[in-house]
Design goal:
It catalyses: beta-D-fructose 6-phosphate + ATP = beta-D-fructose 1,6-bisphosphate + ADP + H(+). This protein is of the alpha/beta class and about 325 residues long. It is about 45% helix and about 20% strand. Helix 7 links the parallel strand 7 and strand 8. The chain binds 6-O-phosphono-beta-D-fructofuranose.
Length: about 325
């Protein structure tokens, strides 16, 4: 490869900028030409590619969001859109593409690689829902935001001896709820991967208050349902009225943690090196602290396994 492009796509995540910086600087270090695609696949279809130099990615490692901006692009879901995207890259003389994003972005990268474009996927999503990597870029920051919010909620809940329902992101994956719940001592963690019984949740809450607990935190991944519905269901069962907090897009903003910056820096450089070795159609990840590649086709057809041991541990420790 002589010339590569990089884009960010789907929901943004903290650390995407650090990943873009790493891709651009590693490519330039190895003497490649690099283009930044503005607004994900939409920008690709608009031929919105601009050359990146060393300074174009200065002062961004610490910033949330993505300087390349992002979009969810309907047209790119069609075979015609995908073919046009591949044609545009060829016309611009680009022979390698690094896609930073989540599941939907990987589907696009998979299609482009089947159309002959050398592609590498980097897992950029707060959800941690990509298989064949222990962590995605942005997950660590999102979890810290949730933990910080729960610390604050605990103060006021304890003063008033109240219960709190906190709704966090994660449509199909409960990892944000799981990790933040374990780290913050939540009483109950509700995730889409594990069926639950609201009667039991309500009874446990009541018993805990009777046995001297002064607050109770229920963490709900949005994939389970709304925090408001869960709170109402609890009130109907035990008469307690939990206060509801929906953390929403706050979880996707702010400066990335050092873990996310380091992961993004390692993966960005790894993707460039893999492209230079002639690899294509691969997703980059980290497993047991080692950088790995997996066929992107396999990644998009696999569901990430849920960590039941961690879930059970959180439950045992929250008595
Ligand atoms: O996939 C990342 C994510 O933040 C999910 O957790 C959430 O369900 C979704 O994106 C929200 O999407 P949007 O920003 O388009 O509302």
């Amino acid at each position: 490869v002589k010339s590569i492009a990089v884009l960010t796509s789907g929901g943004d995540s903290q650390g995407m900028n650090a990943a873009v910086r790493s891709v651009v600087r590693s490519a330039l270090y190895h003497g490649l030409e690099v283009y930044g695609v503005q607004r994900g696949y939409q920008g690709l279809l608009n031929n919105d590619l601009r050359p990146m130099d060393l300074r174009s990615v200065g002062d961004i490692i610490q910033r949330g969001g993505t300087i390349l901006q992002t979009a969810r692009c309907k047209e790119f879901l069609t075979p015609e859109g995908q073919q046009r995207g591949a044609d545009i890259l060829r016309e611009r003389g680009v022979d390698g593409l690094v896609v930073i994003g989540g599941d939907g972005s990987y589907q696009g990268a998979n299609k482009l690689s089947k159309l002959g474009i050398k592609t590498m996927g980097l897992p950029g999503t707060i959800d941690n829902d990509i298989p064949f990597t222990d962590y995605t870029i942005g997950f660590d920051t999102a979890v810290s935001i949730v933990v910080d919010a729960i610390n604050k909620l605990r103060d006021t809940m304890t003063s008033h001896e109240r219960s709190s329902v906190v709704e966090v992101m994660g449509r199909h994956c409960g990892d944000i709820a799981l990790y933040a719940g374990l780290a913050s001592g939540a009483e109950t963690i509700l995730v889409p991967e594990v069926p639950f019984d609201l009667d039991l949740v309500a009874r446990r809450m009541q018993e805990n208050f009777l046995s001297g607990k002064r607050h109770s935190i229920i963490l709900v991944a949005e994939g389970v349902g709304s925090g408001e519905d869960i709170a109402q269901g609890i009130t109907q069962r035990n008469g307690i009225e939990p206060r509801v907090t929906v953390l929403g897009h706050i979880q996707r903003g702010g400066s990335p943690t050092h873990n996310d910056r380091i992961l993004a820096s390692q993966l960005g450089d790894f993707a460039v090196r893999k492209l230079m070795e002639g690899d294509s159609g691969k997703a980059c990840g980290i497993i047991n602290n080692e950088l790995v590649v997996t066929d992107i086709d396999k990644v998009v057809h696999t569901k990430k396994p849920f960590n039941m041991d961690m879930y059970n541990l959180a439950s045992r420790l929250s008595l």
